Amino acid sequence: MADREELFFKKKNVYDTISEDDRARAFAYAGEYKRFLDSSKTEREAVREAVSLAEGMGFKRYAPDMELAAGAKIYTTVADKTVFLAVIGGRPISEGVNIAAAHVDSPRLDLKQSPLYEDEGLAFFKTHYYGGIKKYQWVTLPLALHGVVIRKDGSRADIVIGEDESDPVFLITDLLPHLGKEQEKKTLGEAFTGENLNILLGSRPEGEEKESDRVKLAVLRILNEKYGLIEEDFLSAELEAVPAGRARDLGLDGSMIAAYGHDDRSCAFAALRALLDAREPERTAVCVLTDKEEIGSEGMTGMQSAAFEDFMSYLCGGLRHAGRTFSKSFCISADVCNAFDPCFPDVSEKNNSAFINRGMAVMKYTGARGKSGSNDASAETVGFLRRLFDENGVAWQTTELGKVDQGGGGTVAMYMANRNIETIDAGVPVLSMHAPFEVVSKLDCYMVYKGIRSLYERKM
User: Fold this and answer.
1) Residue 235 near residue 113, CB atoms below 8 Å
2) How confident is the model at residue 321 (pLDDT cuts 50, 70, 90)?
3) pTM metric for this prediction
4) How many CB atoms are closer than 10 A to CB 412?
5) Looking at residue 460, what is its pLDDT?
6) Residue 112's CB: how many other CB atoms inside 10 A?
């Protein structure tokens, strides 16, 4: 007969269960993760860093004539914004593969195609926000500019301004409180509109006093001298404004990380690192780092694209065989969830919330209200994950995305499940999700890595 301890289910603080050695490993892992964050503030940068790490571990870019024997390590990219990686297992791929799918795009401010203008002696960039943001959080915040510009002749300029200590930063201005009485009467959504998220970038004029757009001219001159750009080049550019600065330890105890982009690079790095560290997987292990999740997973680099089928058909020897492989595969949709915040308790239901320092958060379903837009994994799928994690010492918890009528959200899970792949969401709990700086626990990040690695290395 089960005793009291067995009868009750309790989410335990990982610090109460983890060994000193595992804690040291978790903090070392956090250091690697912070370095990844600092070099991966855009989806292009994240893919470039992932490829660099993979090639350093012996991965080769896939070619049609490549022999895919057990132990082979391959990858391919899509438009430099999505990357698929695989370690070929010892069992036939027709028996299924183990997949971890995460995304590397994060909410941000994109420059419009014609962004540069001058108004009353100040030069600005017009922006169009990407993904779900609270617009007021991006005001009076030091910003850096990252991205790529393709000139008319096809040549390319890679841009990073605002990350080096010697670089200037950029800023969106706000009203002083002395003149903000009318602004304060508005809702947050009304007080800060998308069209007013204009980035201040210059004030020094060039040329004769009688001439117009002298500050704009000075800005263009700097961009031309440094990068060979003219204003027309903005038409074929992808430039993103993101928070400037590095990932930092948070708290006197250094137990957390404050950084831009934990959603979803905390899970993306875990999936990547787990694949790089996986030892002789029996089933082929696949890591998917995809783009466009924050805006619906659309487009050629999103999870709804046929690019994933193309990659799997390489592994399986044809798309028809890939379909059969999908039906025997398992996928962890590795994405973050909201962590319970005691400062804002009313939006969550405690019994079904994830908490900081209690491990990898498993989400049977996401979606909104009546589970709309959700994969809603089966009981058998949850049961499998429970056994897998408990057998491998992975601290885990269950959660949902807030109270039933409060809101919700989605991941790539339903797009993987639509391919007839057994799929479940699981990832890192995050405080201040979608803010310019988000917060995660080092131990939770490590447990997500450990959980995904246990899937890759599972014995049949």
Assistant:
1) yes
2) low
3) 0.95
4) 27
5) 75
6) 14
Rg of the chain (C-alpha set): 23
Task: Characterise 228 by phi-psi region: left (phi > 0), alpha (psi -120 to 50), beta (else).
Answer: left
pLDDT above 90: percentage of residues in the chain: 85
pLDDT tens, position by position, 343-389: 999 999 999 999 999 999 999 998 888 888 888 999 999 999 999 99
Structure tokens at 224: 């031309």
Q: What are the residues whose beta carbons fall under 8 Å from the beta carbon of 25, sequence distance 6 or more?
A: 446
C-alpha separations of 229 from 128, 213, 223 in Å = 21, 17, 6
**Distance between CA atoms of 326 and 422, rounded to whole angstroms?**
8
**CB–CB of 429/337 below 8 Å?**
yes
Cα gap 81→103, rounded to integer Å: 10
* pLDDT at position 318 over 70: no
Can you tell me the distance from the alpha carbon of 414 to that of 333, in angstroms, rounded to the nearest whole number? 9
For 369-431, the DSSP string reads: TTTBT-----HHHHHHHHHHHHHTT--EEE--SSSTTT-EE--SHHHHHTTT-EEEEEE-EEB
* Residue 281: Cβ-neighbour burial (10 angstroms; 0-12, 13-18, 19+): buried
What pLDDT sits at residue 238?
97
Q: What is the DSSP letter of 354?
A: B
List, in order, residues 6 or more apart from 168 with CB less than 8 Å away.
161, 162
Considering only CA atoms, which of 390, 385, 395 is closest in space to residue 443? 395
pLDDT band at 319 (very low <50, low <70, confident <90, very high): low
**Closest of 82, 102, 105, 90 to residue 310, by C-alpha:** 82
Write out the DSSP string of 260-314: TTHHHHHHHHHHHHHHHH--S-SSEEEEEEES-GGGTS-STTSTTSTHHHHHHHH
For the chain, which domains are there? 4-106+260-456 (3.40.630.10), 108-243 (2.30.250.10)
Rounded average pLDDT over 316-343: 87
Q: How far apart are CA 271 and CA 255, in angstroms?
A: 21
Judged by average pLDDT, the poorest of 45-59, 273-287, 356-370 is 356-370
Is the CA virtual torsion 157, 301, 322, 458 positive or negative? Answer: positive
The average pLDDT across 252-272 equals 97
| Token reading at 338 | 């909201």
Q: Of 368, 379, 374, 383, give the one whose Cα is nearest residue 333.
A: 374
Across 156-181, average pLDDT = 95
State both tokens at 230: 């003219």
**Which pLDDT band, with edges at 50, 70 and 90, does 397 fall under?**
very high
